[in-house]
Design a protein that fits this description.
single chain; alpha+beta; 2 domains; 10-stranded mixed sheet; 6 helices; 34% helix
Length: 259
Amino acid sequence: MGFRASQTFDTGRRQRSAQLAHLERVGEMLIRRARKLYCNDSFGVDLTNTVYALDATTIDLCLSLFPWAPFRTNKAAIKLHALLDLRGNIPAFIHITDGKTHEVKVLDALSFEAGAFYVMDRGYLDFGRLFTLHQSGAFFVTRAKRGMNAHRVYSMKVDRNTGIICDQRIALDGFYISQDYPEQLRRIRFKDPETGKTLVFLTNNTTLPALTIAALYKSRWQVELFFKWIKQHLRIKRFIGNSENAVKTQIWCAVAATC
């Protein structure tokens, strides 16, 4: 009896995993179709390249109900990672991990598209991974961290009336990070006229105007709005089941509904 019960349990688990894999394929198919419909839409920046915004959001869970997703001492959580195509705000890539997984590790799961821009906050600032992106022919726009070990190689002329304080080529100085990213980077310091805050951007693109780089980073907030919308309207704060498969199934249903 024990062997038969164990066999039945394993069969059921495999069936649920197969159902989840099928739902993921359906979701990915719907995403591809939706992206084709919006591929010519404008997102507020005069650019023909594909532009993606990458970010993650944490969904808190009750540890007693979801013991497979430990996050902190008395809390469980999962993390929803999304790569949003800003033409149509369609998620081009979805990845679900436990809440402890750092966002930057998702860069290892992406296949970078040559010529595309990947806009992300400084939580993704890993120079080895960014150099892999650079070598693929893609571009990134992110923010610099304070105290970054680098020196200015030369500065471009800027019009400070536009909010651009400086536009520089820099080289990394630290022993390890200079090996992780051995080429020059572009550093742009920008004072946002709306908030008065000064932001420092890093990019490997050397041809776009500095104001366009600033506008690209500003467009990253669309992924924040995507997470807010999906939580508010698709009820993924309440789950119909407690298993890992049940939670992932409900999230993929919510993602498919956006397409």
